[in-house]
Automatic annotation (TrEMBL):
Pfam families named in the record: V-SNARE_C (PF12352)
Main location: Golgi
Keywords, comma-separated and alphabetical: Golgi apparatus, Membrane, Protein transport, Transmembrane, Transmembrane helix, Transport
InterPro entries per the UniProt record, alphabetical: GOSR2/Membrin/Bos1
GO cellular component, one term: ER to Golgi transport vesicle membrane
Membrane topology: Single-pass type IV membrane protein
Protein name: Membrin
Length: 207
């Protein structure tokens, strides 16, 4: 057991030395070497777990504590390696992002980006035109409805005059009715004017 313990301690020391090299020169090769050392330490710890139960009973607590310390050190080494790998990957990703950004600004992809942007702008204009067409169609329907209401009011006015004459209403009452119909006509024309104004403003600002 003592031989495996010393061997594992030596592996931990060698792994620590590799971390110093990794700080000076971050590379995947050094990371692989560290991972290989960690795997060897894990294998030795598994063997040491078995050997602990073969030691005398009065020495087992101390032997187990020494093995647990090796396991703890190895977990700390594994965590440090993962941290170093993540840092290296982030640096590589940042470098790739910078290169990709530069190639987009000054490389051949610049034309592709412009074409894509123009396509998006064209789709946006087509969508705006479609909305304007829908609004024009709605405005046309409103105008048709207003014209229909105007014709209806004219017919109602004629029928009302005929009815008044039939009932023998006074000229003052008939004049009052005609004045009210004229006011309704102005309201109708005002509504038509407001509707047309809104449609023109929408076309002016969206097209």
């Amino acid at each position: 057991m003592e031989q495996f313990y010393l061997q594992t301690t030596q592996l931990i020391q060698e792994t620590t030395d590799l971390f110093y090299k990794l700080e000076r020169d971050p590379s995947e090769n050094i990371e692989n070497a560290i991972q290989s050392k960690i795997n060897a330490i894990n294998a030795n710890c598994e063997k040491l777990d078995i050997l602990v139960f073969k030691t005398p009973i009065n020495q087992r607590p101390t032997a187990k504590m020494r093995v647990d310390q090796l396991k703890y050190d190895n977990k700390h080494i594994q965590a440090s390696l993962l941290n170093a790998q993540n840092k290296r990957r982030r640096r590589q990703q940042e470098q790739e992002d910078r290169e990709q950004l530069l190639s987009r600004r000054f490389g051949h992809d610049h034309t592709a980006i412009n074409v894509d942007f123009l396509g998006q702008e064209r789709n946006s204009l087509q969508s705006s035109h479609q909305h304007v067409d829908e609004m024009l169609h709605t405005g046309s329907n409103i105008l048709q409805t207003l014209r229909y209401n105007r014709d209806t009011l004219k017919g109602a006015h004629r029928r009302l005059i005929d009815l008044a004459n039939t009932l023998g209403l006074s000229n003052a009452t008939i004049s009052l009715i005609e004045r009210r119909v004229s006011q309704d006509k102005y309201i109708l024309f005002g509504g038509m004017f407001v509707t047309l104004t809104v449609i023109v403003l929408v076309i002016f600002f969206l097209v």
